[in-house]
Amino acid sequence: MDEERRGGQVLYSVRMRAAQGGPHERGGRHVSGAERIVTEERLHRTVRALLERARRHARGDPDFVQVTVERVPAGAVARIAALPVVTLGTGAPDEARRVARALLEAAGVAPVAAREAVALLAAGPGPAGTAMRGAVLMDAATGERLEPDRGRGVRVTRVDYDPAARRRLEAALRRRGLRGEAVRRAREALALASKAAWVGALAELGWSDDPGYTTGYVAAPAIGYVRLPGIKEAGDCRGGRVLFLAAGETVRVDGGLAGLIGRLEEAPVLIAAVGRVGPAVPPEEFLEGLRVGDA
Ligand code: AMP
Fold it and tell me: Which atom of ligand 1 is nearest to the CA of 240?
């Protein structure tokens, strides 16, 4: 029996990426990607589910799908808590984007960087307005882009929920009125944002490039995971993610930017605790609460 099995639990990281027109690294257009960390017992059905998901994505019919399975020593997996979740009553892109900027500023992002990030996602952050496979890394003070590859970005990978936390989160999201696809999207985005916060991102802005999914978010340790319905018009294929870094600090600690990218992409993380999932709140009321909290 090897080292990993002796500990009782063997875990597998399962990653999927799909593209149209060949693999991503040969110019294929990104269609979808997903991350799981599961026990051996769940491995087969997870691989099958991710393959099926790649093949029925709204962004197109992929001709390249890669599913990667890696064993990870259970002892190497960090167990973390998810950020608390709240939904604001935003309805139209202009309003939701204005609120997103205000939230980012409340989390410590400079106004110039918050503006730049919203404009970047609105235009499509990849080359010539395309979708990226990963996230933009942005200097929270200046708005300067820091990711080494602007087509690929940085992918937050090797993150998932343990089954009990996943069930609790899904039940809590349903109690707040989310259904079907919206539950999956919120769950997955919350996992990425919670890992990014744990690794050390100051804040994050995201909305989907899926033309049918129009709820975006701002997340930060200081404010939680804040859902922003209607941040883009239905039918719009532009979207992405921006992770804000306190860049001055980042380059001085733990291997600098390369070390941080390595942890975002490689450190295996299981979300073992779920925070509060609050009711919908009017945006101004939530922002006012942050200002009071600051005082
Ligand atoms: P989605 O929310 O899945 O529609 O993804 C929207 C955008 O977020 C994608 O086009 C990517 O730019 C980015 N993205 C998706 N998955 C990840 C990830 N695991 N890590 C970083 N960025 C991601």
Answer: 7
Prediction pTM value: 0.91
Cα 37 to Cα 32: distance, rounded to the nearest angstrom: 18
Residue 198 has pLDDT above 70, yes or no: yes
CA distance 147 to 279: 35
**Ligand 1 center to 207 CA (angstroms):** 8
User: 295 alpha carbon to ligand 1 midpoint, in Å?
Assistant: 35
Calculate how far, in angstroms, residue 255's C-alpha sits from the geometric centre of ligand 1: 25
Ligand 1 contacts CB of residue 240 (under 6 A): yes
pLDDT, one tens digit per residue, over 214-230 is 999 999 999 999 999 99
- Using CB atoms within 10 Å of the CB of residue 62, give its burial: 0 to 12 exposed, 13 to 18 middle, 19+ buried: buried
Please list the residues that pair with 85 across neighbouring strands.
225, 277
With b meaning 16 or more CB within 10 Å and e meaning fewer, what string describes 1-18?
eeebeeeeebbbbbbbbb
Q: Is residue 186 in contact with ligand 1, taking CB distance under 6 Å?
A: no
DSSP 8-class letter at 133: S
